[in-house]
Design brief:
140 residues, elongated
Length: 140
């Protein structure tokens, strides 16, 4: 059963990361759309659906199955897992920021430029790289 749960965990992680990489890119394009335009309203729908239908459920499944795997595998005493959990907490914080930003765009209250969202788009990538290295290499 462990391997099936691990497979579902990896699928959830991939789904979560796909959304976390795509949502800031939508914000970049949304910044360029005229407020109140059909294009802007379409971005609002896309952002909300991506968050509610993919990113949020994928994050929940990732956390639940990941914690189960750590418990079942006896990994909680491992230093690499502590570091990984720290990075996953930071990633979850980025998730929270992006969730709040969906609401900001929905209310037509965004004041940040597209450049800001281009830079934010790199944060999940860096965290993903660090997390994967910790999981595969288990350096400590």
């Amino acid at each position: 059963m462990y391997l099936w749960i691990k497979a579902l965990h990896v699928i959830a992680v991939i789904s979560w990361m796909a959304g976390m990489l795509y949502l800031p890119r939508l914000f970049v394009y949304h910044c360029e759309a005229q407020m109140g335009s059909i294009q802007s309203e379409t971005f609002k729908i896309m952002e909300r659906r991506l968050l509610k239908a993919i990113i949020n459920p994928a994050m929940i499944v990732t956390w639940v199955l990941g914690l189960y795997l750590a418990w079942d595998g006896g990994w909680f005493a491992s230093g690499w897992l502590h570091a990984k959990l720290l990075f996953v907490l930071v990633l979850s914080g980025v998730h929270g920021f992006l969730s709040k930003t969906v609401k900001v765009f929905a209310a037509d209250e965004n004041v940040r430029p597209a450049r800001f969202y281009r830079m934010i788009n790199e944060v999940p990538t860096v965290l993903m790289i660090l997390i994967v290295i910790l999981v595969i290499v288990k350096p400590f």
